[in-house]
């Protein structure tokens, strides 16, 4: 009995520390897990805060860029109140593809200071959004001083591209100039939507070849018809053969008067010349 109790006490002493160690290990694991969860939550919160800050910064920067772009655009299209511009298309209001389009721009200085006209440029824009360039033409440098109450005119020409035919585009014509203080101004002389047309050419290679081929066919048909008609007419015409005079009876004497015929009959012998010669030869013998 004593041995059994001693063995049971020994087992209890051995098992109790192990149980304490396992419980402490489980608690330590749970504490570590909770610490890791809290750290992860803190990290996620910090990341969310950083993302919010970055998005706010991006929004602020984008808003600032848009405002700067708007301000720059406003500055580009700003015109001076003392400057007046007009435009006349010398080649007409049509804009044919792959052909020269010319226009004149008039500039009037209505103020009391000089203006220096710098350049004149034109471009085709996307009709739904004029900020997108479709075809940009070379700017024409002018550098001409227009005195107060004076006028000046400038000529410009461009050629619309062939692939643009049949579609509408926004035509923007800008005139840039400076005042005496060096401030830059720009006036949109023309800012409207136009349609690029495609003119039909008079004769191209294919059309010319077709006309020549048809003319050859018509000429061949006429020549064949002429040959057929000529062969038929040749068969119908009879060949006339001229015959010599056989005797006096074959001669038409209806035009000779009757008195003359009677005289000729009396004077001429009734015998033939051949018999007459024979008789004359017999008498001689």
TrEMBL record:
Residues 262-271 have a biased composition (Polar residues). One of its GO terms (cellular component) is endoplasmic reticulum membrane. Residues 34-57 have a biased composition (Acidic residues). Its main location: endoplasmic reticulum. Residues 34-71, 262-285 are annotated as: Disordered. The chain crosses the membrane at residues 208-229. Residues 1-28 form the signal peptide. Keywords: Calcium, Endoplasmic reticulum, Membrane, Signal, Transmembrane, Transmembrane helix. It is found in: Endoplasmic reticulum membrane. It is a single-pass type I membrane protein. TRAP proteins are part of a complex whose function is to bind calcium to the ER membrane and thereby regulate the retention of ER resident proteins. May be involved in the recycling of the translocation apparatus after completion of the translocation process or may function as a membrane-bound chaperone facilitating folding of translocated proteins. Shows a remarkable charge distribution with the N-terminus being highly negatively charged, and the cytoplasmic C-terminus positively charged. Belongs to the TRAP-alpha family. Heterotetramer of TRAP-alpha, TRAP-beta, TRAP-delta and TRAP-gamma. This is Translocon-associated protein subunit alpha. It comes from Austrofundulus limnaeus (Annual killifish).
């Amino acid at each position: 009995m004593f041995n059994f109790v001693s063995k049971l006490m020994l087992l209890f002493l051995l098992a109790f520390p192990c149980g304490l160690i396992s419980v402490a290990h489980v608690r330590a694991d749970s504490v570590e897990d909770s610490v890791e969860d809290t750290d992860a939550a803190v990290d996620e919160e910090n990341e969310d805060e950083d993302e919010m800050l970055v998005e706010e910064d991006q929004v602020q920067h984008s808003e600032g860029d848009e405002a700067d772009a708007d301000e720059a655009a406003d500055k580009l299209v700003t015109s001076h109140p003392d400057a007046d511009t007009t435009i006349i298309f010398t080649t007409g209001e049509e804009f044919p593809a792959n052909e020269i389009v010319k226009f004149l721009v008039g500039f009037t200085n209505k103020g009391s200071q000089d203006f220096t006209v710098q350049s004149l440029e034109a471009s085709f824009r996307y009709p739904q959004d004029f900020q997108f360039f479709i075809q940009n033409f070379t700017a024409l440098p002018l550098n001409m001083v227009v005195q107060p109450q004076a006028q000046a005119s400038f000529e410009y020409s461009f050629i619309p591209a062939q692939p643009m035919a049949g579609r509408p585009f926004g035509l923007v014509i800008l005139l840039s100039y400076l005042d005496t203080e060096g401030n830059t101004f720009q006036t949109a002389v023309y800012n409207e939507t136009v349609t690029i047309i495609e003119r039909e050419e008079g004769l191209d290679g294919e059309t010319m070849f077709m006309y020549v081929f048809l003319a050859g066919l018509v000429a061949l048909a006429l020549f064949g018809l002429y040959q057929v008609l000529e062969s038929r007419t040749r068969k119908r015409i009879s060949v006339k053969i001229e015959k010599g005079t056989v005797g006096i009876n074959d001669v038409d004497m209806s035009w000779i008067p009757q008195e003359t015929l009677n005289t000729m009959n009396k004077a001429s012998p009734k015998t033939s010349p051949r018999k007459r010669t024979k008789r004359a030869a017999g008498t001689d013998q």
